[in-house]
Amino acid sequence: MDKVAEILAEASAEVVEPRFRALAAGEVMEKAPGEVVTVADREAEVIIERRLRELLPVPVVGEEAVAADPALARALHSEPAVWLVDPVDGTSNFIAGRPEFAVMASLVRAGQTVAAWIWQPVTATCYTAELGAGAWRGGHRLTRPPAPAVPAKWRGSVKSRFLAPADHERMQRNAHAAFGEVTPGRHAAGIEYPDIADGELDFILYWRTLPWDHAPGSLLVTEAGGVSARLDGSTYRPEAPGGVDGLLVAADRDTWEHVRTVLFAD
């Protein structure tokens, strides 16, 4: 666990942090319509991939490599073990000079996330989780307390912009009517999932669930005592892009059930 944490922190220090608020002209590119990438994303992924393979020689499914060759993501279903890597989670924040970004990795065995690492460079904070062994922030073990007893005091985020407009509007309307504070999110899963584990938020609904974004945080939250499940209640497992949509993350099972009921009410 410590070695992977070191790999992420070192790659961040080598090629990500020096470019924070210092990106040069030409170091930001569009990799797909509406999707941007930086030189830092690409260089960090190369470093992390090489060092992870030295540690455990299994396929690496990295966000930027899959953008270039989507077939690489099939390893999640065809290989017994796979590394998942998000070299700069929250790239839009990184480009804008906002501090909410992270460097993330996870290990998936037989389709299940068994270990996760989230490095937040600006605060030098490392979150880790291991299946059956707990979730940690640095040397502090995380135990997620239950959400407040009254839903009107809950804080959460409903990230529904990939839904049809009518469904998006209905969910937003339902959430704002039922809960204490509904935020637009922080545009980085590597910041938002720790917010759930730390008790800063009580729930988040995600619609698009790219595996490198959600495998690390889902394990962190569940090992801290929270819930991360598909909308049918099934346990989250990382899927290749284009697979299952919809993921609800919450402080506890009762909160999860209530939020799902509220959001999908007609």
Describe the fold and architecture.
There is one protein chain. This protein has a 7-stranded mixed beta sheet, with helices on both faces. Strands 11-10-12-14-13 form a 5-stranded mixed beta sheet, sandwiched between helices. The chain has 9 helices and 14 strands. It is globular and about 50 Å long. With 266 residues, the chain is an alpha+beta fold. 36% of the residues lie in helices and 26% in strands. The chain has helices at 2-16, 39-55, 63-68, 75-78, 91-96, 165-178, 189-198, 211-223, 253-263, and strands spanning 28-32, 35-38, 60-62, 81-89, 102-109, 112-120, 125-130, 134-137, 140-141, 155-159, 181-183, 203-206, 227-229, 247-250. 46% of the residues are buried. The N and C termini lie far apart (45 Å). β1 (28-32) and β2 (35-38) form a beta hairpin. It folds into 2 domains: 2-141, 2-Layer Sandwich (Fructose-1,6-Bisphosphatase, Chain A, domain 1); 151-263, D-Maltodextrin-Binding Protein, domain 2, CATH 3.40.190.80.
Give the overall average pLDDT.
Answer: 95
Described by strand count, sense and barrel closure, the largest sheet is: 7 strands, mixed
Strand order of the largest sheet: 3-4-5-6-7-8-9
CATH architecture of the largest domain: 2-Layer Sandwich
Helix content: 25-40%
Described by the principal axes of the CA atoms, the overall outline is: globular
CATH fold naming of the largest domain: Fructose-1,6-Bisphosphatase, Chain A, domain 1
- Which ranges are low-confidence, i.e. pLDDT below 50, for 5 or more consecutive residues? none
Q: How far apart are the termini?
A: 45 Å
Strand content: 25-35%
How many domains? The number is 2
The class by helix and strand makeup works out as: alpha+beta
Radius of gyration: 18 Å
